[in-house]
Each structure stands twice: as structure tokens, then as C-alpha cells.
Design brief:
The protein has helices spanning about 25-30, 35, 45-55, 60-65, 110-125, 140-145, 170-175; strands spanning about 5-10, 15, 65-70, 80-85, 95-100, 130-135, 150-155, 160-170. With about 180 residues, the chain is an alpha+beta fold.
């Protein structure tokens, strides 16, 4: 895996490309059942599997963006991840975030997601970004609302209901000016 390139900063956070040394933290994040409850993803079986995943992670090279490690600017601690990912079947760009439970309800998800949206619209020239939340995941849905995303639709995948929210560049610019 190449050394990280693109990086964002917010008042309390650094968002940067994943690096190989993030594997143990990602493994621990994915092992927490509460963190994973609303993701419809399975945990990684080992640190080695995370290392392999990070080594093969294609999004930075393909699109210039992807999910980014979220680091506390003051303690340098790994808090979780947040970022953008282009969805292959639809070509939509999806905002996603996941944090260790000890960092919930502290505004980190909203702060990181706001930085990711700003980068998507200003640095990467995106016109629209979506956010998905399982219907039962009230905390993530609240973050999407705080970001100014508007409800678009409900979809179902493998029996899971997802709320889809969207924000476009002009709506985002109106919110920050």
C-alpha cells in the first residue's frame, strides 16, 4: 500500500487515506457488535484480512477519494473512518462513516462528514452525494439531517430497509455561506 496522499483537516480531526498501520484499529472497529449493528457487513476475520483489504483498496487510485481514516488532531488517536465511495452499480457517490463507540455523541461523525462533503464538492467536483442509513439507525440518520441532506427514498437490499438521503453542491453551498 502506498503512503497516504490526500488529507483533510477540520477543527478537531484529520481525515487521511488509510495506511497499513491502520489494520489493527480497523480490525477492532469491525469487531464491535454495536458499531456493526447497522452496517449489513461482516467483521473482518483477522488483522491479516484487514491488511489484505487495505493493500487492495482501489478507490484512491480509481476516483481520487474513498473512505478515510479519522484521526484526532491532538492525540493522534484513530477514531474511525469517514469518506466518499463511488457505488459501482449506480455510479452515485456515497458518504459513509463509522466510529468507535467511545466517540459516539461527541460530534465527530458530523464534523468528519462535513469535511468529506466539502472535499467532495470543492476538491473532487462532485455535483451530488448520497447518504444511506438503516431505517433503525437513528444516530446516523440524525447526522445526515444535520448535514442538510434531504430524504429521497427507501430501498431494500437483502431484506434490509435503507433510508437514502441526498445533498447537491448548490444546497451544500447555500448551507455554508
Amino acid at each position: 500500500m502506498a503512503e497516504p496522499g490526500f488529507m483533510l483537516q477540520s477543527p478537531r480531526l484529520i481525515l487521511r487515506e488509510f495506511k497499513a498501520s491502520d489494520a489493527p484499529d480497523l480490525y477492532d472497529l469491525y469487531r464491535d457488535e454495536d458499531v456493526m449493528r447497522y452496517t449489513a457487513e461482516a467483521p473482518f476475520p483477522s488483522v491479516k484480512s484487514v491488511e489484505d483489504f487495505l493493500e487492495a483498496y482501489p478507490y484512491y487510485d480509481i476516483h481520487g477519494f474513498g473512505r478515510w481514516a479519522v484521526i484526532d488532531r491532538f492525540s493522534s488517536e484513530f477514531l474511525g473512518f469517514c469518506g466518499l465511495r463511488k457505488d459501482n452499480p449506480t455510479t452515485e457517490v456515497d458518504l459513509g462513516f463509522r466510529f468507535f463507540r467511545r466517540y459516539w455523541s461527541k460530534g465527530f461523525a458530523t464534523e468528519a462528514a462535513q469535511a468529506a462533503l466539502e472535499a467532495g464538492f470543492t476538491h473532487f467536483g462532485l455535483e451530488e452525494i448520497i447518504g444511506r442509513s438503516m431505517r433503525e439507525n437513528l444516530a446516523s440518520t440524525s447526522v445526515l439531517h444535520k448535514l442538510g441532506m434531504r430524504f429521497r427514498e427507501v430501498t431494500e437490499t437483502d431484506g434490509v430497509l435503507w433510508l437514502i438521503y441526498v445533498i447537491d453542491k448548490s444546497s451544500h453551498e447555500t448551507r455554508i455561506t
